[in-house]
Design brief:
It is a single chain. This protein is mainly alpha-helical. The chain has one domain (2-438). The protein is 77% helix and 0% strand. The protein contains 21 helices and no strands. It has helices at 2-19, 24-42, 47-52, 56-74, 77-89, 93-108, 113-131, 135-155, 161-168, 174-200, 210-223, 231-250, 259-273, 276-284, 288-306, 309-318, 324-342, 344-358, 364-379, 389-399, 413-438. Helix 1 (2-19) packs antiparallel against helix 2, helix 5 runs parallel beside helix 7 (113-131) and helix 16 (309-318) packs across helix 18 (344-358). The chain is globular, with a radius of gyration of 22 Å. The model has no long low-confidence stretch (mean pLDDT 84).
Length: 439
């Protein structure tokens, strides 16, 4: 009964933190403590062994990449890039939607998409205000933008937590993951943009005109007058990130330079190069909340592992009266649905152990990449599952946008639902097709 008790505790904790997001940190930390208690008393495990199994290297990479992102933020490069993209599109509603989606896909593969979105979205909301967009345009443009962020995060091993977990745990090398995931996420993004642009056509309700476009560009220029790239922060941040990317691809694992050590060295160089701002980032900008949240999740997963939960789940999957391909398909669909309900962090942390069992009989790279794409599909299903979903909702509410007829514009759970369902179907289809065809 111990595996079932630990599994029930894990599900209960993850459900409570999803229902009560304002208290998610204390809920997860308390759940981790109770999981340790159950595992030590009923399964013969020890707290020391559970803590030793925590992937500290993943936490180091998350903190290090967050620090590099904050150095780049200090350079104002994201805000300036958003303004220039708007000028390049000439504030044409259809082109704005496509261009920002592609840009956020590219940015999310390299830096924290939450931070990048926090700086880019206010510029985009100013564009929406001046253009006089409709509820339909807002829903589909922001929904596609969030999905593009998720796909960009899944495109590289450093873009988001699930991929970082694969790299940090040594499940896949940097180059192996990049070569497999980047093309597949690009295919999913192109498919999503093509369907939305050709069938949904959200820009058809927005009456853009040369005068409105000129007014939009002039408004942005006035709001961001005097804003310049701060090279003293851009150079150390960009150089450190470039050096880390090169090292992850070129340095062999036998050298002793592990991915987390490369990240630690690169983040330290970026912070030192930024001078006093780097010291300020190290003191006050490190995301302690996210680090503690993931630590609690890792402890709960480790306790459940000690109790035999995931080994039992893998055996149950293997015992299903299905073909090998069908078992993998069931796993990927289940992973996507679990992620949609519980979000990417808990989903990936729990499912990776089951994936490891499948990787014993199937090509590991195929299984792990399929899992990462399925988790991406799940994180795009609901607004609450998307990492940046609540942030986007809050920023839209704060902007108090109105449609041309005076109706307040909103971006909530139900508004995102049609975009999320379409994104889920397209990304999961790519995951299933690519994985099953490679087995």
């Amino acid at each position: 009964m111990t595996p079932l008790a630990l599994g029930a505790l894990l599900v209960l904790t993850v459900t409570l933190q999803a229902v009560l997001p304002a208290r998610r940190l204390t809920i997860v930390l308390a759940g981790a403590a109770v999981s340790c208690l159950v595992a030590t008393r009923a399964a013969g495990a020890s707290t020391a062994r559970i803590l030793a199994a925590v992937p500290w290297d993943v936490l180091v990479m998350l903190v290090g990449l967050g620090a590099v992102t904050e150095v780049l933020v200090a350079s104002e490069v994201f805000s300036i890039a958003a303004v220039r993209v708007t000028r390049w599109t000439r504030a044409t509603p259809r082109v704005v939607a496509l261009a920002f989606a592609v840009c956020m896909y590219a940015v999310s593969g390299l830096v924290n998409n939450l931070t990048a979105l926090l700086l880019v979205l206010p510029v985009l909301l100013v564009v929406f205000r001046v253009l006089g967009v409709t509820q339909r345009y807002l829903r589909w443009t922001l929904g596609v933008l969030l999905t593009a962020c998720n796909l960009g995060g899944a495109a590289t091993p450093i873009g988001d937590f699930p991929a970082i977990l694969l790299l940090g745990r040594g499940a896949m090398s940097f180059s192996a993951y990049l070569l497999r995931a980047a093309p597949l996420t690009a295919i999913a993004l192109i498919g999503l943009l093509a369907v939305v642009d050709a069938l949904v056509r959200p820009a058809r309700d927005v009456g853009g005109s040369p005068l409105t476009a000129a007014l939009t560009i002039d408004t942005l220029a006035a709001l961001h007058r005097g804003l310049r790239v701060r090279r003293r922060y851009l150079l150390p941040g960009a150089l450190a990130l470039a050096a880390m990317l090169i090292a992850w691809v070129a340095v062999p694992a036998s050298s002793g330079l592990s991915p987390e050590l490369i990240c630690w060295l690169g983040a330290s160089a970026a912070l030192l190069g930024a001078g006093s701002v780097g010291e300020s980032i190290a003191r006050s900008k490190v995301d302690i909340e996210a680090t503690l949240f993931l630590l609690g999740l890792f402890v709960m997963v480790g306790a459940a592992r000690e109790g035999g939960l995931f080994h039992g789940a893998a055996r149950g999957l293997a015992a299903l009266p299905l073909t090998a391909h069908a078992r993998v398909a069931v796993f990927l669909v289940g992973a996507a649905l679990i992620t949609g309900v519980f979000s990417a962090g808990p989903g990936m942390a729990a499912l990776l152990d089951v994936a490891a069992e499948l990787a014993r009989v199937h090509p590991p790279a195929t299984i792990y990449t399929g899992l990462a794409l399925s988790v991406c599909a799940g994180s795009s299903l609901f607004l609450t599952a998307a990492t940046a979903g609540p942030l986007t909702q809050a920023l839209v509410e704060r902007a108090a946008l109105r449609a041309p007829d005076g109706t307040p514009l909103r971006f909530g759970f139900l508004d995102f639902a049609p975009v999320g369902l379409l994104s889920f179907v397209i990304i999961l289809a790519v995951a299933l097709a690519s994985t099953l065809s490679a087995l």
